[in-house]
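Notes taken during the Thursday session

The instructor put the following on the board and asked us to keep it in front of us for the whole hour. The protein is Short chain dehydrogenase. We were told not to look anything up and to reason only from what is written here. First, the residues (110 in total):
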Amino acid sequence: MSSAENGQVVVITGANEGIGYHVATALLDRGYRVASLDVDGTNVQSLQETHPNRVQFYRCDVTVDGDVRTAVDEILDRWGRIDILVNNAAIFNFAPSKTTPLPTRSASSR
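Then, after some discussion, the predicted C-alpha cells were revealed:
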C-alpha cells in the first residue's frame, strides 16, 4: 500500500529551509501529506501552491507551547491524524569562532 493510498500525514518542524524543506519535497514526491511548521513560510508557499491538497503551512515557533498546540489542533482538524514527526527545527547562531593558537613545541620536546 502506498503512502498516498493510506494517507499518512507527516509533520515537519523547521520546514521552510534546508533539510526540512528538502525532506518535505521528497515526501511529497512519494505521496505523503505534509504539515510544514516554521516561523517563516516563504519557501513552503510554492510547495503549497503546487500541492494544495497535500501541503499545509502552519506558522509555528516550536519554543512556544501555544503555537505548537494550535498547529497540532489545526492539523488534526484538517487531516484527522499525525503519523510521523520530523523534528527538524533548530536555532543557529552563526558567528566567528574564537581563534586560539596552539602552543608551539620545540624539536627537543618531541
